[in-house]
Amino acid sequence: MAGAPAYTGAAVVLLLFVLAISGSAADTSPEEPTLPSSSASAAAVDAATAVVNGSGAGISSNSVLVALLDSHYTELSELVEKALLLQTLEDAVGRHNVTIFAPRNEALERDLDPEFKRFLLEPRNLKSLQSLLLFHVLPSRHPAASWPASAAHPTLSGEDLELAAGSNGSMRVAHASVTRPDAVLRPDGVIHGIERLLVPRSVQEDFNRRRSLAAISAVLPTGAPEVDPRTHRLKKPAPPVLPGAPPVLPVWDAMAPGPSIAPAPAPGPNSGKLHFDGHSQVKDFIQTLVLYGGYNELADILVNLTSLATEMGRLVSEGYVLTVLAPNDEAMARLTTDQLSEPGSPENILYYHMIPEYQTEESMYNAVRRFGKVRYDTLRLPHKVVAREADGSVKFGQGEGSAYLFDPDIYTDGRISVQGIDAVLLPEDDTKKTSTTTPAAPVRKAPAVTGKSKNKLRRGKLMEATCHMAGIFGQRSRLTSCQ
């Protein structure tokens, strides 16, 4: 009974010793995550067995793995840590001797393809990086003294690696030469320095597959910004539209892309759908006339004497285009007060000078050169203005009432074109009214714009002789035609 307390105390001391060893093993266990593998459970069983047997846990400070991490192969050591392979290599070293082939730092830092290096360091390619590093480790010891002549040996990655010896005593690993044989010798392994990185076939195929997919992928990623082809601005997501609510954009906005892309369709007058800011364009062209000089009379008629400027702005806003044949101040001065005082005369005169087309000096000259004579519609329906080539320019009208293109392209903005002429044009009907009127009420003739005064009506020679004889006999006053 006296030995019972001593036996009990010894048991307690032994139990505390086992608990202390267990605590120290738990403190020294690595905290970084490990990849799931079939050897994890076996390593845990071996560690527990080592603890129970009192042999300790972990690896020795004289291990080849510690020598690798502390060696001058720093690039390879960093890749091993990034690939989370410390636990896997520790398990391999604990089971058997290993042979590690370590590429020099320059081979991994400068000689490696940058695109391939980016591929290895991408998180989604972790398995490829692990396979590449495990391809450099053999689960057997192969020092330089027992280097095989030519044989294939399995690696930790599962693929075979060929070892060969040259006739001159050189050592090769696949396509790489061993530059520093037996660089590190330890009881549990050996490290050989090689000239380049060893790339297994599986990793090379995975890299080629990823590179091919990246090269052919042309689909925009989800959420990529879209550019509106009409405004050349980024599209913004439209707010949700409630059922029955009007559309976000009016229909005619979608029909008229804008003047910079294509002219909008002309829906017709009084439609209320204004595709362009016609009033600003008319204002600009009138200011251009005033600043250009020599067309103040036309600008005064458009703005003050009539409301044609407002009407032109409305037409342009609705989608129409106009070409204005603008008489200069010298031509407008030839018009008489009677011609401008008749009701609607200023409007009719200017309507005859407005062509519902967009024409420039070049387009009109090319047309008359090609066709000889061109008839343009005017806003004074159904009258047309005739254009032909004359003296290397464009001549409008016929006979004495014709005008030359004097100042070409005074104003051109794609919607309104202003061409300066040196005379006022009048329709042919106004020049032929003299043939339909009675002699008692002679009708004035359209003025000739050649700088001469208005021509009087000429009577025939027979009428002049009759009036002269009637004056001799005192009967001249009875004849109305002789007065």
From TrEMBL:
The gene is LOC100825043. This is FAS1 domain-containing protein. It is found in: Secreted. PROSITE patterns: FAS1 (PS50213). PANTHER family: FASCICLIN-LIKE ARABINOGALACTAN PROTEIN 16. Its main location: secreted. It comes from Brachypodium distachyon (Purple false brome). May be a cell surface adhesion protein. Belongs to the fasciclin-like AGP family. Coiled coil: none annotated. The keyword Secreted applies. One of its GO terms (cellular component) is extracellular region. Keywords: Glycoprotein, Proteoglycan, Repeat, Secreted, Signal. Residues 60-198, 282-410 form the FAS1 domain. Residues 1-26 form the signal peptide. It holds the Pfam family Fasciclin.
